[in-house]
Amino acid sequence: MPVSRNTSAITQPLNVDEAVRNRYNRAASQTESRLCCPVDYDEGYLAIIPDEIIERDYGCGDPSRFVKPGETVLDLGSGGGKICYIAAQAVGQDGKVFGIDCNDEMLALARKYQHQIGDQLGYHNVEFYKGKIQDLSLNLELLDGHLADHPVANIGDWLLVEEYAQQLRKLSPMIADDSINIVLSNCVLNLVYPADRGQLFHEMYRVLKSGGRAVISDIVSDADIPATLQNDPELWSGCISGAFREDRFLEAFRQVGFYGMQIVERQTEPWIVVDGLEFRSMTVQAFKGNDGPSLDRQQTVIYQGPWRAVIDDNGQELVRGQCMAVSDKEYSLFTRPPYADQVIPVPPSELILLDQVSSICSPAETKGNTQKSTVLPDDDCCSTSNGCC
Question: Which fold has domain 2-137+173-287?
Answer without folding.
Answer: Rossmann fold (3.40.50)
